[in-house]
Design goal:
By secondary structure, the chain is of the alpha/beta class. The protein has helices at about 5-15, 155-160, 200-210, 225-235, 275-280, 315-335, 390, and strands at about 20-25, 35-40, 50, 55, 65-75, 90, 105, 110-115, 115-120, 130, 140-145, 165-170, 175-180, 185, 195, 215, 260-265, 285-290, 295, 300-305, 305-310, 345-350, 360-370, 375-380, 395-400, 410-415. The protein folds into four domains: about 5-20 and about 170-335, MoaB/Mog-like domain (Molybdenum Cofactor Biosythetic Enzyme, Chain A); about 20-45 and about 135-170, Molybdopterin biosynthesis moea protein, domain 2 (Alpha-Beta Complex), CATH 3.90.105.10; about 50-130, Molybdopterin biosynthesis moea protein, domain 3 (Molybdopterin biosynthesis moeA protein, domain 3); about 345-415, MoeA, C-terminal, domain IV (Beta-clip). Helix content is about 15%, strand content about 30%.
Length: about 425
C-alpha cells in the first residue's frame, strides 16, 4: 500500500504528452496549447481615446476655459492624419486614434462647441483619457504559454493576435468498462440484487470534462475470459472481439484503441474480482495496486500494450474520488497541461470530520461562507463509498490525514471540484 503522493509521482513518471495537432480557434476551448502564443502587434496598436470628446494639447488648456479651433474628426476605423498645432482640437470618438500632436482628451461633457470652435471647460492633464500604444502588451510579448488550457475568456485575445488556428495537444482516447453481474443498463429496471450502470456514464462525463475523448464499452459480467477479451481488444492486443456498441459522441461503431482504459469493479480480492488476474495474464506492467486512501484503497495503475489501464473500485464515490486523484491526472498529463491536479485550497471545518486508521481519507464536502467571510466545510450525509446521492451535492473533497480527525474550526486542505 503506497501513499497518495507516491501514486501521483508514479503517474507523472510514466505518462507523457501526446503529439500536437492543429485546430481552428472555434474548436480550441478546453484544449491544451502545444505552443506559446505571442503578440503579433502592439495592443492597443495606437494611442486610443477612452472617451467621446476632443483631442487637445494639454498645454493649451492650462487656463480654462480654453478656446480651440476644431480642425477635423477622428472616429474608430478612420483617424485624423494631420499633425495638430497649438490652438487646435480634433473631435474624437471612443476607441479612435489620437492624432499626432495631441496628448490628452477632454470628455464631451466638459466642452462647449460653437461655430467651428470648442471651449474646454477644465484643464486636461498629460495623457488624460488616453490608452497609450502597447499599454496592454507589446509586439513579441508572451500572451499565453504552452500547457495552458484554452478557456472561453482567452478566445478574444487569440483572435486579436491572428490565431485563426492553434496548435494543441491531442485528446487521449479513454474507454470505460464496467464489470459486475449485478449491473444492468440504465434504461432497464433492476430486479432484486441488481443495480443500474451509473459508473460508466459518470466516468465518461468526468473524462470529457478533463479534456479526453471518451467512450463506453459494453459492460462485462463476472467472467474471466470475457473480461480478458474485452480488455485485450480495448488496448489493441487483438483485433476482433464481440464489441459492437462502443458509444462515443452518441455514435456506435468500431472501438478505437484506448490511450487510457478504465475498468471499474473487480479490483479487490474476492472470488469474482478478475481485473488484476486478467491484467497479469495479459502481461500488464502493474505500477501500483493498493493506495493508502479511503475510499479507493484497491486502485490499480498499469501499462498494457502502450496503453494505460486504471482499475477502480466499483462503488460510485470511490470511482469518482480515484478518478479525480489519479485518472484525471493522467488525462491532463497526456495533454501536456501545466495544471494536472485539481485546484487546492484551505477551508475551515464547520463541524468535526472523522478520519481513518492507516489511510488518508478524501471525503466529499459542500462549501459555504460564514459571517466572517471565511470559506467553510460542511460534511455531507455520507454513509459510505456507495452513497452517490450525497456526492451529487459535493463542491470539494477534503483531505483528512491518516490516524487523525478534524475538529470544528480546524483549517483543512481541500480539492475544489
Amino acid at each position: 500500500m503506497i501513499p497518495i503522493a507516491e501514486a501521483e509521482k508514479i503517474i507523472d513518471r510514466e505518462v507523457s504528452p501526446l503529439k500536437p495537432e492543429t485546430v481552428g480557434i472555434e474548436n480550441a476551448v478546453g484544449r491544451v496549447l502545444a505552443e506559446t502564443i505571442r503578440a503579433d502587434m502592439d495592443l492597443p496598436p495606437f494611442d486610443r481615446s477612452q472617451m467621446d470628446g476632443f483631442a487637445v494639447r494639454a498645454a493649451d488648456t492650462k487656463h480654462p476655459p480654453s478656446h480651440l479651433r476644431i480642425i477635423g474628426e477622428s472616429v474608430a476605423g478612420t483617424g485624423f492624419d494631420r499633425k495638430m498645432k497649438p490652438g487646435e482640437a480634433v473631435r474624437i470618438m471612443t476607441g479612435a486614434r489620437v492624432p499626432e500632436g495631441a496628448d490628452g482628451v477632454q470628455k464631451v461633457e466638459l466642452t462647449k462647441e460653437n461655430y467651428g470652435f470648442v471651449e474646454i471647460l477644465e484643464t486636461v492633464r498629460h495623457l488624460q483619457n488616453i490608452n497609450q500604444r502597447a499599454s496592454e502588451i507589446k509586439k513579441g510579448a508572451r500572451v499565453f504559454g504552452k500547457g495552458e488550457t484554452v478557456s472561453e475568456q482567452m478566445i478574444a485575445a487569440l483572435a486579436a493576435f491572428g490565431c485563426a488556428d492553434v496548435k494543441v495537444f491531442q485528446k487521449p482516447q479513454v474507454s470505460i468498462i464496467s464489470t459486475g453481474s449485478e449491473i444492468v443498463p440504465i434504461a432497464e429496471t433492476p430486479s432484486r440484487d441488481q443495480i443500474r450502470n451509473s459508473n460508466s456514464v459518470m466516468l465518461k462525463a468526468l473524462a470529457e470534462g478533463a479534456g479526453a475523448a471518451a467512450g463506453i464499452l459494453p459492460q462485462v459480467h463476472d467472467d474471466f475470459e470475457t473480461l480478458k477479451n474485452h480488455i485485450a481488444a480495448a488496448v489493441g492486443l487483438i483485433a476482433e472481439v464481440p464489441i459492437s456498441k462502443f458509444r462515443i459522441n452518441k455514435g456506435e461503431g468500431q472501438a478505437p484503441k484506448s490511450k487510457i482504459l478504465i475498468v471499474t469493479g473487480g479490483v479487490s480480492v474476492g472470488d469474482y474480482d478478475f481485473t488484476k488476474p486478467v491484467l497479469r495474464e495479459l502481461g500488464a506492467e502493474i505500477f501500483f495496486e493498493k493506495v493508502s486512501l479511503k475510499p479507493g484503497k484497491p486502485t490499480v495503475f498499469a501499462r498494457l500494450n502502450d496503453s494505460f489501464v486504471f482499475g477502480l473500485p466499483g462503488n460510485p464515490v470511490s470511482v469518482a474520488v480515484t478518478f479525480y486523484l489519479f485518472v484525471r491526472r493522467a488525462v491532463r498529463q497526456m495533454q501536456g497541461a501545466k495544471n494536472i491536479e485539481l485546484k487546492r485550497g484551505h477551508a475551515v471545518c464547520a463541524e468535526p470530520i472523522k478520519g481513518a486508521k492507516e489511510r488518508d481519507s478524501v471525503l466529499p464536502v459542500s462549501l459555504s461562507t460564514d459571517k466572517k467571510g471565511r470559506l467553510t466545510i460542511e460534511t455531507l450525509r455520507f454513509s459510505g463509498s456507495s452513497n452517490f446521492i450525497a456526492f451529487a451535492r459535493a463542491d470539494a473533497l477534503v483531505l483528512v490525514p491518516k490516524n487523525s480527525s478534524l475538529e470544528k474550526s480546524d483549517v483543512a486542505e481541500i480539492f475544489f471540484l
